[in-house]
Specification:
By secondary structure, the chain is of the alpha+beta class. It is 33% helix and 16% strand. The strands form 4 sheets. A 6-stranded mixed sheet has the order 4-3-2-1-5-6. It has a 3-stranded antiparallel sheet with strand order 7-8-9. The two termini are 22 Å apart. Residues 166-424 form the Peptidase M24 domain.
Length: 432
Amino acid sequence: MSTTLFNLQRDHLAHLQRAYSDILAKHELDSLAIYSGHASPHFGDDQSPTFQTYGHFMHWVGMDDIQHSWLVIQPGKRPQLYLYAPADFWHLPTHLPDEPWVAEFDVQLCPSITMPSLPGRAAIIGDIDRLDAMPAQARDALQHPVMLVHALDELRMFKTQYEIACLREANRLAMAGHQAAQAAFVGASAELDIQLAYLGASRQRESDVPYQNIIGLNQHAGVLHYQHYNLTTPKQRHSLLVDAGRRFRGYCADITRTYAGPDAPNMFHELLGALHTLKNNLVESVAPGVEFMALHEQMHHQLADILITHDLFRGSTKEAVSEGVTRAFCPHGLGHSLGLQVHDVAGLRHPDGTPSPAPEEHPALRLTRTLRPGMVVTIEPGFYYIPMLLEPLRSKALPINWVLVDSLAACGGIRIEDNVLITENGFDNLTP
């Protein structure tokens, strides 16, 4: 661990200590216990799915695989980490890294599952409903109080310099994977081979990825969360869409790239270039005070212009948006908050914790906030050939060039996604 990163992490922990002290004082609390969570086995089995540590626990510790452990925060005191570390010859015992930040905590290694005592008026947050039994010393504590959790969610919306450094490194590692995926596509690999190339170059196990990588060839590029990896290479290679990420100290990269194959029509090549330009235009529009909803609407207007310029729609920009044509070609939101979770917390709430839901006309939007310095968001415009969304338009008297639209069916879709930090004066694109 570099000295620079450790100094940033130490500042980050000091920032959390101050912020948590203020939040606990506001809620008249003397202590807060954060449960890391734990994996549960599949029904009728003794195997468990991949586990991810609770985000507010990870905000302090920066490790995404800690189970059955507790973190106790008290104003004016060092954070106390009760790390579950049983003697186990079946598995490698849990251990903390040999890094200087560990000295910022009072660490107690617990050979059995242990609930710490909580002084004063206390609260507990985390996945406590799945505990086998609530320990006696915790029964009087407030359990997962909603407004307290909303305040901690809001704290995570604004990244420290340490968090930004982690997000930047996660992006760097993920882009190495994307470059390998592109090379595998050029080499006529199957979806599974492309996935393995991505994992190898980004140096991670499949169980470590922050979300299931989307590796879609041809029509599969039009399935927004395509979930399979075919084992054979298709006879024709029209397109590849790779939506794949990487964690670094818990922080997530979420990057998407689309490539045209040797069998793609010229129109697909042109649209791919247009979507790159659209993504760049939207990134350059990111700034403090900008409403994310306004960026989302800008995406739809510019997407309408692309449809018109390429003779896919022969009406006006206003008509393409108002009649739902652009929503049929891009049904998802422009992006979302990014941090310890891929779709990070507080994106659909106001700063005071009250709801700020997506509007009825854009139900898939995951972020409705006004952009402020320190936020990190994704910018991911798309264009897809999705039959179930296009079919209702066919019965309407709309000036859609269906011959040209249908020529793109084999290509599936396009999505280009970068991770962007809002700065005091504008933006910093973290995706190299």
